[in-house]
Design brief:
Blueprint (H helix, E strand, L loop, with lengths): L2 H15 L6 H17 L4 H17 L8 H17 L13 E6 L6 H14 L4 E6 L6 H11 L3 E3 L6 H14 L4 E6 L7 H14 L3 E7 L5 H13 L3 E5 L8 H10 L3 E5 L7 E3 L2 H8 L5 H11 L2 H12 L5 H13 L3 H7 L5 H5 L4 H12 L3 H5 L6 H11 L3 H23 L6 H7 L2
Helix pairs in contact: 1-2, 1-4, 2-3, 3-4, 4-11, 5-6, 7-8, 9-10, 14-17, 17-19, 19-20
The structure holds guanosine-5'-triphosphate and magnesium ion.
The site of guanosine-5'-triphosphate has 22 residues, from α5.
């Protein structure tokens, strides 16, 4: 996602970093380049103009561009302005009541039903009793789709045969009250256009239900059309937030950068995959970092946490600290790393990694081969790799389909790593995964 705009900014920032001094001419040139980058990414014309004007004013007003790194200072101005444009990150759900209602609306195929299940999954993890309501009586299969998603996350789905969205929603309300549910999520029907009939129905639903939250589900791939649609809905029924979906696609970035300035409706969450756990709290800094190519430490931590349980991390730390880390641990590590996604993906999230390195395609096979070699060792060999003699190495090579040379290289690297660990432990620079994760929370 954001590939085009991120590439553009990479060039702009690289040029800035190289400057020993910032002149008015540099400011003008950079501003023009930023404007081009924003417009190319389909950012609203007025938003782009204001962004550039603000950056220009701030840069010109910064008298002390004579620090050691004036370029970095300029970059920081751009970064801050981008965070401001994206809007503050406040995704706390407004759920103050005994029974709270969340209504999802939006155009066809924007991701309402998927997002309903993602929100339900998130709330369930917060120990809320959630009722999903299938209020889309128009699209054939819509109710079944929600039922299937509900089953996956073990959440009750309400639907009935009345064929009237308002009745379904009020019936669900009665059920939720009787059965002590904490939250209802209404999945409503999408339409191709913001037509009068749909607006009336939504207004009617709003009046009858008075939801705490009305979220507009915006497809980040649809560009600027989505903005006028949000505006219309907000004027008609007052939205409490926007959820941008499909940020994992090749969205240009224009809509996410324009929404807050044009509509003043806050972005609350972003969808980053089709799966029920693919919903992230909206964080302006995180998005700005991505667009400007600063990496994405939050997503990285998120992925690490998903596959690595805290107690495993603590165990690993202990083994590293006592230098008892062996090939059994290494094997677990590799396995977990593979669950986190491709190396190319992970490298892309590390802050400070240059675009050049990011674009190098990492040989994913290397990991698969390393795993194959380790798998060919017996558990005893894994725990005591120093016993690996020529005949054992030959057997391992044969078993894994790799050469003895590769087995030797892996062993050499492993022993070097252990030596390094020992040194680190002696220096008391104890590596703490737990601490590392906590720092980024
Ligand atoms: N990659 C990706 N796909 C998504 C995301 N959110 C939704 N989708 C996909 O988008 C398609 C449409 O999603 P739905 O949830 O059915 O959309 P909807 O708004 O309920 O559609 P209608 O009910 O037909 O109006 C599905 O194929 C989803 O899997 C996301 O964040 N990332
Ligand atoms: Mg739907």
């Amino acid at each position: 996602m954001f590939d085009g705009i991120s590439k553009r900014f990479d060039t702009i920032l690289k040029n800035l970093r190289g400057l020993g001094k910032i002149t008015d001419e540099n400011i003008e040139h950079t501003s023009r380049e930023i404007r081009k980058a924003l417009l190319e990414a389909d950012v609203n014309f007025h938003v782009a103009k204001e962004f550039v004007n603000n950056v220009k004013d701030l840069a010109k007003g910064t008298k002390v561009f004579d620090s050691i790194k004036p370029g970095e200072q300029f970059i920081s101005i751009i970064h801050k302005e981008m965070i401001k444009t994206l809007g503050e990150s406040n995704s706390k759900l407004d759920l103050p009541l005994r029974l709270n209602l969340i209504m999802l609306i939006g155009t066809q195929g924007s991701g309402k039903t998927t997002t309903a299940s993602k929100l339900a999954f998130r709330l369930k993890n917060d120990d809320k009793k959630v009722l999903l309501v299938a209020a889309d009586t128009y699209r054939p299969g819509a109710i079944d789709q929600l039922k299937t998603l509900g089953k996956q996350i073990n959440t009750t789905v309400y639907s009935d045969e009345t064929n009237d969205p308002v009745k379904i929603c009020t019936n669900a309300l009665v059920k939720a009250k009787n059965e002590n549910f904490d939250v209802i999520i209404y999945d409503t029907a999408g339409r191709l256009n913001v037509d009068g009939e749909m607006m009336l129905e939504i207004q009617n639903l709003k009046d009858k239900l008075s939801p705490n939250e009305i979220f507009y589900i915006a497809d980040s791939m649809t560009g600027q059309d989505v903005i006028s649609s949000i505006k219309t809905f907000d004027e008609a029924i007052k939205l409490t937030g926007v959820i941008m979906t499909k940020l994992d696609g090749d969205a240009r970035g224009g809509s996410i950068l324009s929404i807050r300035s044009v509509t003043n409706v806050p972005i609350k969450f972003v969808g980053i995959s089709e799966k029920y756990d693919g919903l992230q709290v909206f964080n302006a800094k995180q998005i700005a970092d991505r667009i400007l190519g600063f990496g994405d430490i939050l997503s990285l931590v998120d992925r690490v946490e998903k596959v690595m349980k805290e107690e495993d991390a603590v165990k690993l730390e202990e083994r590293l600290a006592s230098n008892t880390f062996d090939f059994n641990d290494f094997r677990t590590q590799i396995h977990q790393m593979r669950q986190m996604g491709s190396m190319t993906d992970l490298i892309g999230m590390i802050p400070g990694i240059s675009r050049k390195i990011r674009s190098l395609s990492f040989d994913e096979n290397q990991i698969i081969w390393t795993e194959a070699i380790i798998n060919s060792m017996t558990p005893y060999e894994r725990s005591k790799p120093e016993i690996l003699n020529a005949s054992r190495k030959k057997r391992i090579a044969l078993g894994s389909g790799r050469s003895v040379f590769e087995v030797n290289t892996l062993l050499k690297k492993f022993f070097e790593m252990k030596k390094m660990m020992k040194k680190m432990n002696l220096n008391k620079t104890k590596f703490s995964t737990k601490k590392l994760l906590r720092n980024f929370r």
